[in-house]
Amino acid sequence: MIKMSFRGVIFMNLYCGLMHLIFGVYSKSPSSSGGGGGGSSNGGENYRFLHGGLTVQFIGERLPFNRLELIVLDIIVFGIQLILLHLHGVVGNEEVFDEDKEEQEVNDGGEENSAAGVSSERAGDGSAVRYVGPLSSSSLSSLQGGVEEIPLSELCNSNHTEEAVIDKARIEGDGYNGNVQLLTIDLIDGIKKMMNLKVNIQNSRESSGLSTSSSTFPGAFPRSLKHQPPTTTTTAKEMSDNNIVGIEYNRVTNTSSTDFPGHQSSGDYSWDIEKFKNSFDIKITNVSERVANFDLIHIDTSIANAFRRIMIAEVPSVAVETVYSFMNTSVIQDEVLAHRIGLIPLKVDPDSLTWVDKNVDENDRYTEDNTIVLSLDVTCSKNPHAPKNSTNPNELYRNSNVYAKDLKFEPQGSQLEKYKDNPVVPTDPNILLAKLRPGQEISLRAHCILGIGADHAKFSPVATASYRLLPVIDIKEPITGELAKKFQKCFPPGVIEIDSNKGEAYVADARKDTVSREVLRHPEFNGKVKLGRQRDYFIFQVESTGAMSPEEIFFKSVRVLKNKAEYLRKCPIGQ
Length: 575
Prior knowledge:
The protein is an alpha+beta fold. Helix content is 29%, strand content 23%.
């Protein structure tokens, strides 16, 4: 059916294109339609041209006046027809309407279809009919060979005693394809017939996964199974009792959808501190000056996400809050320069400062206990000893570039003794602040205070703090030989290895997997591997800006969360 429609589209477009090349644009003709020409009607204001077998009317618009414009319109109409043909005949509903319809795996010999006897057909009057029961050899051959139309009246009067279902949801999923008659039948006649048959309307999620029989009503084309992507259906029982999030070709399954995430109807979920101590675990894989990688195992998602959010937004750090500009003759405005300075991470212990009390008078608000002062005084001048014929600004001028290292710490009062071993400096000294040329000058003072990332991003101690769930790769059947090498290439390096003795693929390190689902694109691996993520295994990566070490940031996030819990426990409203 698809081939016949495709040939018809090509034939009509070739015919119209040839007519337009030979005859061009007809001036005016009494006829309103024609093979390749044009016509006029309605007093010469309504013109019609034939493009791809379709009549295109030009009402109140400029007409094509040469062969080139006619050929361009032919190409546009031909492209639109190909797109519509592809959507009707090739692309499945789940790709067009994002339907989450489960696909049932098809056995090689079709034994499951014969045993279960599942068939889905379209009735001759447009209603969708699905009947379940044993199939005869003739019915099975017709089901495998193409679509067999069974009118609803014949189904009702036949000897079929099995369940009959009018799949209304499937028709609605197709959008009726503009078939007004089908819509009318569904609204008026469909209800009556369903009441008489005493059948249930099933959702497309519950209907049969086999798409052997497709829509036969006008405007729809049968779709072949080969166009549908290979899928692997995973149930909650197969995925370790709700502890694994199933990763399939086009969706994620087994996700929490209850008021209590991670809980099931069966099982004891009462809080037990001893049980938590025995099950909870932390694994540290890498710790450096700026980056830490660690795993939190057997912990609820809400707690893991709370740590992440606190590290980003509620662990205090020190940053520039106020800039007093005395001289700025550079090309950068004062506001932009102040903003750049405020985003510079500073190497200072937040515990060495106290919080600024906003209730105190502004003249007495900032003291040596809660404020750090930095100064920036840079003037650009020419270099008298610059190499001849040099064009490098760093050689021609002095202080042509202003960096973060040019910010100098000015201790106030007891700060000289407090910070004598650890002076306040930028964590990255080569951050460019501005560019100067001879005669330009910058002179300012910057006051630094404590803050949190929830107030401004400059106070966030981390560049990023994220986590991901541990990937799970479950090989259901042995994969050997050349298939094992292809299986290995579907994953990042180090995830899958091949046993040198057996030649069999095995999971070496699932942690390195990015869950790209590349393996699910290949039908030869269908049913041989299951992908997922472990729900209570969180792989954290914390990148510090340099003000604090990543492990210190995490410890402080635990302290903040503990203080929140203590506040709620002692809150009078909570009691």
